[in-house]
Design a protein that fits this description.
Blueprint: E1 13-16, E2 18-21, E3 39-42, H1 55-58, E4 59-62
Antiparallel strand pairs: 1-4, 2-3
Amino acid sequence: MSHKIIINGVEPDTYALSIFHDEDNNTLGTNFFGAPNEGYGFSNNVIGNFGKPTFSEASFVINDNKETINLDVVLVR
């Protein structure tokens, strides 16, 4: 399954995105070790080591008004 999100009016700059799939209508759920137990993803499809990735790992540059960023969501069960 895929979804498309369009964000207009983004100024040229360096950005990073994160997303999570809130299954129970609250904040991102985590397990005993602090690892997410709901779906999540970061730009550049990076996965952090023992925490979220750094801005530099997830960052990308917007140079004009028609950029496409693909972001996979890891579904945790």
